[in-house]
Amino acid sequence: MAILTSNATNGAHSGHTNGNSKPNSPAELDAEKLIINLVDKPKPIPAPETLVFGETKTDHMLVVHFDPVNGWTAPEIKPYGPLSIDPSSSCLQYCPNVFEGMKAYIGLDGEARLFRPEKNMQRLASYSKWTRTIQKFDQDVLLTLIKRLILVDKRWIPTKPGYSLYIRPTIIGTRSSLGVRHSDTATLFVILSPTGPYFKNGLHPISLLAVSNTVRAWPGGTGSHKLGLNYAPAFMPQIDAASKGYDQILWLLETDCQNGENGKELRITEVGAMNVFIVVKRDDTHLDLITPPLDGTILPGVTRASTLALADAHTSGNVTLPGVPSALKIYTHEQPLTMSQLSSLHSEGKIVEFFGVGTAAIIAPVDRIGWNGGDLLFTQESKDGLGLIGRGVFELITSIQTGRTKFEDWSVSCE
């Protein structure tokens, strides 16, 4: 049962007491202990057309702390505001920070909905296992708390098509020491931000600069987690790509030749912060849908998994992608893809579509890739750059997100 307190002041909560009287028995994350402190004066909601991604925040946030003695504190939904942390906190020094990205939508029935939120909870929980220092939390409990936060700020969810409420759950290490070691204390917080379409002026194809002299992730590294440290090194290469006239980076990773011969190959990993897909013509007139495998350097994206599942469902006859003939088979493959292979397929005219997928854009079509001093150009079937498969996936996912189409249990109500 949540404890509701009105007339709250906008301030940070720094206490770490949880009422657990048993020594050596840290408290678990518990939605029944939720405390809700509402803001005195709700902020005005800006017009949807003025929204810039991540700039506008809602009235409230969810905050809960962890330490190894007391465990998780009582969760609190409180007015949005600064966090109070020690300047020597490990998150500010050594970057033990992990986050998730998900969205809430308003369906035709007026209910707030989430898209496959259990996938985000699984990824976030895997960080606790990865660090081995933060007590595991019940994923269903955290999801319940996020739903409560969304309902508190439901008025912030845009109803205009293409708009949504972005959700950013984050865990930061808060051990207050400059010693180079793991953090055994943490703060988990969730903030919300109304957002518009990824392409503000309408969907259009993007250009990529293939880069191999810097890497986003590497074997044995942290590329499979949404850690803050994975993103900062990409800022300068992105600025360089933009100065050369490209929208984003096609991240390459040098690896041994796939065929076992001496030499190196450049393996495709991700597009900016998105997963990569290519659609290839088959000799039997059907299509192959190829994406790099989850080898530890690739983020296990929710949209990636959904794209593969919907393509498989189309081929098996369980669902039909909008605009795609039901007789057309789409064979999915999770396999390494190198630049030399991509170049060969391109020269043979076999690449039908090249696109990135992610929570923000859903589908981002690609029309050219800067590579070896030139450009690989991809023919566009439409002005917005979407091909047959990309458009079918985009339309079906957006329909599921808002509850217009039911597919398995992908659309989850917050009500």
From TrEMBL:
BP terms from Gene Ontology: L-leucine biosynthetic process; L-valine biosynthetic process
Gene Ontology MF: a single term: branched-chain-amino-acid transaminase activity
Record-listed N6-(pyridoxal phosphate)lysine modification sites: K226
Pfam family, one: Aminotran_4
SUPFAM superfamilies per record: D-aminoacid aminotransferase-like PLP-dependent enzymes
UniProt EC number: 2.6.1.42
InterPro entries assigned to the protein according to its UniProt record, in alphabetical order: Aminotrans_IV, Aminotrans_IV_CS, Aminotransferase-like, B_amino_transII, BCAT-like_C, BCAT-like_N, BCAT_family
Family stated for the protein in its record: Belongs to the class-IV pyridoxal-phosphate-dependent aminotransferase family.
Cofactor(s) required, per the database record: pyridoxal 5'-phosphate
Catalyses which reaction(s): L-isoleucine + 2-oxoglutarate = (S)-3-methyl-2-oxopentanoate + L-glutamate; L-leucine + 2-oxoglutarate = 4-methyl-2-oxopentanoate + L-glutamate; L-valine + 2-oxoglutarate = 3-methyl-2-oxobutanoate + L-glutamate
This protein's record includes keyword Transferase: yes
Biased composition (Polar residues): 1-24
Superkingdom of this protein's organism: Eukaryota
Lineage: Eukaryota, Fungi, Dikarya, Basidiomycota, Agaricomycotina
Region entry Disordered, spans: 1-27
Organism name: Leucocoprinus leucothites
Protein known as: Branched-chain-amino-acid aminotransferase
Record keywords, A-Z: Amino-acid biosynthesis, Aminotransferase, Branched-chain amino acid biosynthesis, Pyridoxal phosphate, Transferase
The protein's enzyme class: transferase
GO CC terms in record: mitochondrion
